[in-house]
Amino acid sequence: GGSQPDDGAAADRIWALPGQPEVSFEQFSGYVTVNRAAGRALFYWLTEASIQPLSKPLVIWLNGGPGCSSIAYGASEEIGPFRINNKASGLVPNKFSWNSLANLLFLETPAGVGFSYTNRSSDLLNTGDRRTAKDSLEFLVRWLNRFPWYKTRDIFITGESYAGHYVPQLAREILAYNAKSSHPIHLKGIMVGNAVTDNYYDNLGTVTYWWSHAMISDKTYHELINTCDFSRQKESNECESLYTYAMDKEFGNIDQYNIYAPPCN
Amino acid sequence: CTEKYAEIYFNRPDVQKALHANITKIPYRWTACSELLNRNWNDTDVSILPIYRELISSGMRVWVFSGDVDSVVPVTATRYSISQLKLRTKVPWYPWYVKNQVGGWTEVYEGLTFATVRGAGHEVPLFKPRAALQLFKSFLKGEPLPKS
Hints:
Chain A is an alpha/beta fold. Chain A contains 6 helices and 9 strands; from the N terminus they run ββββαβββαβαβααα.
């Protein structure tokens, strides 16, 4: 009948998802309240390891955006045990799932992502890195109370793209928490991929990549380098126009997330 | 195109019931990315490099990887950023292998391991699942990626 945000682990057990193949591992999902006053609750999906889960670490996966769902991307497209079929009628196994090596905890953060929610609508209009890190830490502390057998396990945090912010920021929050706590969280490491890291170097490196991979002309490259201030959050109109020209007139109809793949029409 | 299937699947009432999701009847559909959040994101660090320095000095294992055919946060961007950390090299640049093929290139620095994944786009495990799994295996073990 559906769990409430602060029920125990047993209430969160998933018996089977519609169209799911038979599997040997356990799954849990549900909500953890991270801020009672605002009514903010984060949603998670735990897929335990397919072999000897008790001896395996816990790996938390975060997606970026900001605003994107780790259930949509991490779980359903990338490292999770299932892929959704093209009729969305069921699930098929992913033979390269990372749950062959670890227990995978997909976290939807911050509130407003996927099934995670807030009762204070202004939370959706003024969110950002800081609250995401704090709410994610609160989630983890409370989640470990719900699943106490993970408290002694090694924990790793991984993610991609804008999670290049979330992952190190959450790791830093955990270090600060551990410094004050008699029950430290056993965080061992982090891993990020294609991660947003530094405004200036990310932007400079991106434009350089476009030029070195022959996606833009020499002229556009030099104009971008000479016009844009890559350290700014918001670029000048002149710079924005150059970006638009590069993407609309020179890239062509490609998938920017994988330049040699056919675009999804 | 797979996120389109996710948009359908995770909005199915029977799927939400099985997941114990949406118990409060959220007034909008489940979506892979929230445009509302993205447009109203108003607190972002300009650079994460200072946090990397903190984490590395705490002794934490830090790995950074990059699919080399992504043009949104491309490998060049990541390399420019990492070079600002000015880390000493422990194991010099070499190609790593998965199933007798070059999986990418890697360098092990003091406190951070960097690896590229050859032919992978932004979502590395989607486009190169076998290579990504090898990367994950080495990361968990805390060992350099295989040289052969």
